[in-house]
């Protein structure tokens, strides 16, 4: 099971058009809140006070995210956008795509000023994209840039929708960092790993028998202890109870499920192929996150 989050960068941009949306229970009056720059509807009821802990990036951090492949605005381009005359109904009447994007960028600069968040958001939308779905590592620079885009959106327009989008991506990244930490710990100190893993599972699922059964099997597997068919059946039942088609399971839990199902019955060709790659990675001390799933020569 690959530890990637499948998404289209194009879909992230859809949230741009959700600015100004929000749930009734999230509505809170603010005195000088910015408003929807696209449709010029200053509905302050839909803008909440930003949750500062969610805003992790400092002014200097925005430039660090860009890198050599980043297409940045020049000073002359920013000045042009700041002074561009924008038609009142540009969002509804502009047919030319390039001109539409120029008006949109100018609207941000003229509404909010030349802020690091504005530059980043506008530049992010100008980077080359694809309509195809791509797999992006949760800790890659591509994903980090997308998270920054959502933070810039929330900073400028702190709506309930933008808050939830930012919270979701932060949660995914934080969970991935925890998984990577556990993966390193497993290879260095298996006993400490299983204790940490057990505690983490309790936080997620509660102190229930299924969690104990998962941790017990993982411990025996990692420590190289004999595993009976009964152990496998108990693990499989717990795994199915906690996860729907492995959704939400960690990489190691999925690997353990492959081991359990292979020991107790015939596995599919794809399952056996995945299992062999996991086994090879364990023998070589390679992180499960570094397995090359596209190279069948590793089998």
In brief, what are we looking at here?
This protein is mainly alpha-helical and 299 residues long. It is built from 13 helices and two strands; from the N terminus they run βααααααβααααααα.
What characteristics describe this protein?
mainly alpha; 299 residues; two-stranded antiparallel ribbon; 2 strands; 13 helices; disordered N terminus
Descriptive overview:
There is one protein chain. The protein folds into 2 domains: 174 residues, no CATH class; 110 residues, no CATH class. The chain has a two-stranded antiparallel ribbon. The longest helix has 29 residues. It contains 13 helices and 2 strands, in the order βααααααβααααααα. The protein is an all-alpha fold and 299 residues long.
Itemize the secondary structure elements and their pairings.
Blueprint: E1 4-7, H1 9-14, H2 61-64, H3 75-83, H4 90-93, H5 97-112, H6 116-126, E2 134-137, H7 141-156, H8 160-188, H9 190-205, H10 209-223, H11 229-242, H12 251-264, H13 269-284
Antiparallel strand pairs: 1-2
Helix pairs in contact: 3-5, 6-7, 7-8, 8-9, 9-10, 10-11, 11-12, 12-13
């Amino acid at each position: 099971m690959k530890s990637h989050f499948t998404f289209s960068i194009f879909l992230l941009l859809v949230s741009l058009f959700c600015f100004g949306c929000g749930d009734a229970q999230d509505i809170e009056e603010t005195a000088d809140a910015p408003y929807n720059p696209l449709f010029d509807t200053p509905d302050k009821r839909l803008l909440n006070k930003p949750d500062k802990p969610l805003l992790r990036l400092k002014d200097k951090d925005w430039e660090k995210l860009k890198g050599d492949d980043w297409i940045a605005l020049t000073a002359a381009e920013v000045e042009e956008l700041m002074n561009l005359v924008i038609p009142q109904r540009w969002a509804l009447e502009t047919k030319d795509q390039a001109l539409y994007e120029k008006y949109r960028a100018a609207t941000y600069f003229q509404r909010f000023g030349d802020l690091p968040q504005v530059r980043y958001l506008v530049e992010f939308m100008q980077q080359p994209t694809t309509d195809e779905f791509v797999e992006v590592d949760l800790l890659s620079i591509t994903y980090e840039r997308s998270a920054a885009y959502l933070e810039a959106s929330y900073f400028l327009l702190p709506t309930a929708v933008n808050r939830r989008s930012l919270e979701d991506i932060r949660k995914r990244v934080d969970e991935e960092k925890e998984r990577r930490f556990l993966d390193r710990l497993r290879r260095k100190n298996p006993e400490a790993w299983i204790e940490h893993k057990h505690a983490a599972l309790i936080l997620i699922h509660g102190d229930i028998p299924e969690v104990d059964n998962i941790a017990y099997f993982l411990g025996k597997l990692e420590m190289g202890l004999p595993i009976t068919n009964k152990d496998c059946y108990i693990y499989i039942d717990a795994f199915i109870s906690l996860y729907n088609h492995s959704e939400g399971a960690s990489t190691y839990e999925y690997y353990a499920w492959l081991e359990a199902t292979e020991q107790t019955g015939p596995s599919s060709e794809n399952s056996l192929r995945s299992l062999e790659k996991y086994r090879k990675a364990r023998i070589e001390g390679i992180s499960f996150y570094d397995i090359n799933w596209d190279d069948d020569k590793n089998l």
